[in-house]
Design a protein that fits this description.
Largest sheet: 3 strands, antiparallel
Number of helices: 9
Shape: globular
Order of helices and strands: HHHEHHEEHHHH
Oligomer: single chain
Distance between the termini: 75 Å
Strand order of the largest sheet: 1-3-2
Number of strands: 3
Radius of gyration: 27 Å
Helix content: 40-55%
Length: about 200
């Protein structure tokens, strides 16, 4: 979308907002241009969270995933060195909070939405957040009926609406090249015989 078009839409929305809520000022709002502590959130994330929870068999993982996302920067890498805090921010409390959080992390890893690695904090010391579009496509290829059709259709519709091309850009799996046969002495002898017969 062109910058002029964006600016015009923004002006129209601002005018409508002021009409609906004339008493509201910028001080009442959470504006990223004037506040700190923000991160970039993909517009597809709410729907992707629903897909993740639908795959996790009554163990919702979306809050755990979102906490990881909010801790990551552009390198998509998170050091899991504050596990009690991360468990609490993901919605888990009590004596089993970290254990429940760990289970959700393992589910995300098993589904393929993240990769985990061991380190100083045990088996779950690091997390790498992968492109969820690619993960969904891989699941569709290996388990065609694993994701509900209505969710997949909604995902495609929303991706088109926001201009995301990840579903089209996902790298295709290269076809395996046929193995080259190593000439055996018998094959060499047959080729030589054919050459001699042609010459004669």
């Amino acid at each position: 979308m062109a910058e002029k078009t964006k600016a015009k839409i923004s002006e129209q929305k601002l005018a409508l907002r002021q009409k609906v809520w004339p008493e509201i000022t910028d001080a009442d709002l959470w504006l990223r241009q004037k506040r700190v502590g923000f991160t970039t959130v993909p517009r597809i994330l709410p729907l992707m969270a629903v897909i993740m929870d639908s795959l996790s068999k009554n163990k919702p993982v979306s809050s755990t995933y979102f906490d990881l996302w909010c801790r990551a920067y552009d390198e998509c890498f998170v050091i899991l060195n504050k596990q009690p805090e991360m468990a609490f921010h993901s919605g888990f409390s009590g004596q089993r909070a970290v254990q429940t959080w760990s289970e959700r992390i393992k589910v995300l890893d098993k589904l393929g939405f993240i990769k985990v690695a061991s380190g100083p904090n045990g088996p779950l010391s690091y997390a790498l957040i992968l492109n969820p579009y690619n993960v969904v496509q891989k699941i569709c290829k290996t388990k065609p009926d694993f994701i509900r059709e209505d969710l997949l259709n909604a995902l495609h519709e929303r991706a088109i609406e926001i201009g995301a091309t990840d579903l089209e850009d996902a790298p295709a799996t290269p076809e395996p090249k046929p193995a080259q046969q190593t000439p055996t002495p018998a094959r060499k002898a047959v080729k030589l015989a054919r050459k001699l017969s042609i010459k004669s």
